[in-house]
Amino acid sequence: MGRQSVWSLYLHIPFCATRCTYCAFNTYTDRHALLDDYVKAICSEIGSLNNFNHRIHTLYFGGGTPSLLRPFQLEEIISHVLINFTYSPSLEITQELNPRDATEEYLHAIRKYVSRISLGMQSVNPSELQMFSRDHEHSHVVQAMEYARQAGFDNINLDLIYGNPGQTLDMWRDSLHAALELDPDHLSMYALSLENGTELKRRVTYNELPLPDPDLAADMYELASEMMEQAGFTQYEISNWAKPGKECLHNIQYWKNLPYLGMGAGAHGYANQTRTVNVMKPEIYIERLKNLPPNPLPFPQTPATMTAEPIDRQTDMFETIFTGLRLLNEGLSLTAFEERYGEKLEAKFADEIRRLTRMGLLWQDGDALKLTKAARLISNRVFQEFAVEEET
Ligand code: SF4
Question: Is there an atom of ligand 1 within 6 Å of 27 CB?
Answer without folding.
Answer: yes
